[in-house]
Amino acid sequence: MTVYVPHNTDDLNSWVKYKPSLCRQCMGTCCSLPVEVNGADLVRMELVDAFELEEPAKKIARRLQKEGVIEHFHAKTEIYTLSRLANGDCLYLDQKKRQCTIYEKRPQTCRNHPGIGPRPGYCAFRIKTE
Fold it and tell me: Residue 90: beta bridge partners?
């Protein structure tokens, strides 16, 4: 079976119907999509503790931006967007193995992908090249 390899993750028409077996052969393309996280995710990721969540979210956001962990904070929804590397990859994606370095602690957005996201049930599959 030939699978179309997308070059632009923004082109949702190039995404393929998700099957768990795709992950074993993929470059981790989903890990180059923006990742939105909330306070519970930050606690799971061990970036803040439960007591710090009692602080104003803007204060937490300033600290995490200074540390380079988040690139954006939406004050109205208290949603943080994780920073990405220069190549667009999530900062928690191992660049050689193309696997998540915090898999057990990963955010809910990642846990639910591709069930949620820009095209539910589809993924931006790109075959791993050695």
Answer: 84
Residue 118: both structure tokens together: 């820009």
In terms of pLDDT, which residue wins out, 129 or 47?
A: 47
Rounded Cα–Cα distance for residues 82 and 15 (Å) = 23
Residues 119-130 pLDDT 10s: 999 998 888 876
What sign does the CA torsion over 15, 17, 22, 23 have? positive
Q: How far is CA 44 from the centre of its chain?
A: 14
As a whole number of Å, the CA-based R_g of the chain is 16
Mean of pLDDT values over 110-121: 91
DSSP state of 1: -
